[in-house]
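Morning. Coffee machine broken again, so started the prediction first thing and wrote up yesterday's gels while waiting. Chain of 84 residues, entered below exactly as on the submission form.
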Amino acid sequence: MRFDFTQEDIEREANKVYIQDDDVLLTGEFIEGEGTHYVLTGSALIEGETYHGFETEFELEEEIENPTAAYLMSAEWKWYDYIC
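Came back before lunch.
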């Protein structure tokens, strides 16, 4: 299933997540997946350089009933991995 960010999500920057351990800012365009497994597609800001079409795979700690893109971004991630 695909989850798109609403204009309100974007204005509130709910489509962004900062991964402090890696010093990476992810900006999501959309999320695809179901259950606890998802892939975030968007851009990544790494050491001042922006990478477009960047994908980040992640798994949630627990499944969310009726998820939205913004809620998936703010949920607890069990793990994540950069695909490209």
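The chain has a mean pLDDT of 96. Going to sketch it on the whiteboard this afternoon.
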